[in-house]
What we know:
The chain has helices at 25-36, 50-57, 86-98, 135-151, 180-187, 200-204, 222-238, 257-267, 279-286, 318-323, 337-346, 376-382, and strands at 17-21, 40-44, 62-64, 78-81, 102-105, 118-122, 125-129, 165-169, 191-194, 211-214, 243-247, 271-274, 300-304, 327-331, 354-359, 367-372, 389-393, 413-415.
Amino acid sequence: MTDPGLYPLALRLAGRRVLVVGGGAVATRRVPALLDAGAEVLVVAPRLTPALRAYVDAGRVGWADRRFEPSDVDDVWLVQVAVDDPVAAAEVSAAADARRTFCVRADDRFAATAWTPATARHGSVTVAVTAGGDPRRAVAIRDAIRDRLADGTLPSSHLPVAGQVALVGSGPGDPELITVKGRRLLARADVVVADRLVPGLLLDELGPDVELVDASKIPYGPSRAQEEINRIIVDRALAGRFVVRLKGGDPYVFGRGGEEVVACARAGVPVVVVPGVTSSIAAPAGAGIPVTHRGVAHEFTVVSGHVGPDDPASLVDWPALARMRGTLVVLMGLKNLPAITATLQAHGRSPKTPAAVVQEGTTGAQRVLRSTLGEVARAAVAEGFRPPSVVVVGDVVHALDAGGTGPARAGAAAGSGMFGAPDDEGVGDAG
């Protein structure tokens, strides 16, 4: 059956009541968009999915714990029938028709008076596609448009504000782990100031007119280089350009993003911060190591190891970390790994504690070494591990082994992780 002809329309539902009949998977998919549109949602169903129940418990959705009654449609602007029982759905449709209220049906679109299109959102742009009653075709077309909006090959009207800065975390190394918002803003940039740890394929997608500033090649020491990065960001923004400061991992996890925000604020330049997937979690995950696991670790701590434990400049309480039972994740710690492991053992952490090193996590060049606290520093040198690497200490290193946590294995095992897939002297969070 072909599309009998549709009149496309965008509904403004803010403050208006919408009835959802059914509390299963279909309702779980539809309710979030209705809430995002500002609708007052009432769900009528004897049972709810846990996700819908969470909305009810939070006071965001009303719930009638019973079967549908025709009077439920009174004072309703739109009805969503989210049940697969055609008899029950027809009853709701009839009640909606009698009150001249549009009704969407999950069980039979051709028996409905309104359809839910395949929808994608890109900033302020919403794309809604129908395809003659063929939902798979509509989704395919929707996805093609969404992808082109995301990579910038299809320009949208959602243009960034001239003279604004976006501080974007690019994730741990895999270019697909940048957030949707981060990729959208990157596609609209006039200037990109990038760390050496950002995924190179993201830079390859930039348009020919985009100015690329390689922040890793700025001369001077760390402090002077940061001052120069701040100056470039501010100057380009004050010149009326949209600047994306692209950083590995998350901008605020040992990435000096806070200093860049302060510099912009002092110059009166507006900043939007887009968090990134931090390598402190993603690199271990890519190696098959969860930083927490039920019955194994109820806490994890992330520290910077770029300053050794005996250095007066260190702000880390290493003796306290040695006494903790949870997972310890060290970023930028490969150079100081011998001193770090020795300090942890000196303050009580067992040398048999499982430990791992993940180099260039989540990328095709990922390498994983599993060892023990007493051996990992020596093994990392012997196996030629280099930055960017993340160090993990704790029983979670073996939490996903076939036999559970298992005993700590002596020595080291190097190679690619079974789960597939950089960071400075540690990780993509250290820009």
